Amino acid sequence: MTKEHPPDKTHHHLPKMTEEEDHKKNPTTKKRYMASSPIYTSGPYRSICTCLSIFLLLAGVTALTLWLVYRPHKPQFTVVGAAVYDLNATSPPLISTTMQFTLVTHNPNRRVSIYYDRLYAFVSYKNQAITPQVALPSLVHEHRSTVAVSPVLGGRAVPVSLEVVNGLTMDEAYGVVGLRVVVMGRLRWKAGAIRTAHYGVYVKCDVLVGLKRGFVGQVPLLGNPSCQVDI
């Protein structure tokens, strides 16, 4: 009688998983594989990232350098002369006046020109306009240049409050009238072939003039007229 022997387990081996199957079943192994794979550590992917980083760095340095070199400064305004040809406040609530102011504007930039578009000017008293808005010609300011303009403001009656009429009457009797010359419009800066977008500009110059009732012509400016430029 033949004796049956148990099957020899040493001759039966489980199929060995390939490296790809091991990666699919074991996420940790997959991550280690990806981290060590040459496609993630070198080659085109890494070269593209390096080139992009260098490009962004150079672009940032270039933009900063251009800003430091060409950054525009606000223009400067000064009132250097004034004349009053008519001031009639005897028919409230209307007032009629004709005035002329000489304004000098300076471009302090060494490399940037200024282009003024659609400029308007008027005179106010106690924050109320006493002349209609007058359009000024467009101005071009080359770098480090100075331009003078002498607009004639007024010419027709405008409605005002009783406070303005009484205030002007009292100031004329005293001999000193405080006025504000306002210039507003749009400007843009130009550096070489590059022009910026339009920016709103608002200039207000507070002046004290020596004026007596009935006087016509050039009037003295008292003190140092100051102009504030907002952009």
Automatic annotation (TrEMBL):
Residues 16-25 have a biased composition (Basic and acidic residues). One of its GO terms (cellular component) is plasmodesma. The chain crosses the membrane at residues 45-70. Keywords: Membrane, Transmembrane, Transmembrane helix. One of its GO terms (biological process) is defense response to other organism. This is Late embryogenesis abundant protein LEA-2 subgroup domain-containing protein. Residues 1-33 are annotated as: Disordered. InterPro entries: NDR1-like (IPR044839). It is found in: Membrane.
